[in-house]
Write a structure and sequence with these properties.
Helix content: 25-40%
Number of helices: 5
Order of helices and strands: EHEHEHEHEEEEEH
Low-confidence stretches: none
Largest sheet: 6 strands, parallel
CATH architecture: 3-Layer(aba) Sandwich
Number of domains: 1
CATH superfamily: Flavodoxin domain
CATH class: Alpha Beta
Length: about 170
């Protein structure tokens, strides 16, 4: 497996915790962590395999730093690079835009020519709408720490095993 660039907002505590678990499950020696707060466009181009993480803020928005990086992504050519996304959300309090940040990032990375990998089942979640849903599947790993924290470790482990095959 080629070296992986893991990008997430480091000052988001829960996202950071999930990112560390993903890094360990993939093999810490295989994964470089790049905080989104310090990332530049060429950082994304330095890896063939990317893991991108974000929570969804407020009513379906990207967190600070990701919203600033999105315009920079539009000029990148990531054709052929594999991108796996993970997102955090709260399906109980935000059922109308559950993990929308994940869907927003998926759209932006697809525009760059990247190949999305790591799709997961939407079974077991209760929500009304989400931009991250594609044909009854999430466009990545979905974690709801607020309401399903007991499922998080299992979901992370299974997803990382899937990524090892897809990367």
């Amino acid at each position: 497996m080629k070296k992986i660039g893991l990008f997430y907002v480091a000052n988001a505590v829960k996202t950071s915790q999930v990112a560390r678990k993903i890094r360990e499950a993939l093999g810490a020696d295989q994964v470089d962590i790049i905080p989104a707060e310090k990332a530049w466009g060429n950082d994304f181009q330095s890896y063939d395999n990317l893991v991108i993480g974000a929570s969804t803020w407020f009513d379906g928005e990207l967190p600070t730093f990701w919203d600033e990086l999105v315009p920079e992504l539009t000029g990148l050519d990531l054709k052929g690079k594999k991108v796996a996304l993970f997102g955090l959300g709260d399906q109980v309090n935000y059922p109308d835009n559950f993990v929308d940040g994940l869907g927003i990032l998926a759209e932006e990375f697809e525009k760059t020519g990247a190949i999305l990998v790591g799709y997961t089942s939407a079974e077991g979640y209760t929500f009304n709408r989400s931009k991250a849903l594609r044909d009854d599947q999430w466009c990545g790993l979905v974690i709801d720490v607020e309401n399903q924290s007991k499922l998080s470790d299992k979901r992370i482990k299974e997803w990382c095993e899937q990524l090892k095959k897809e990367f």
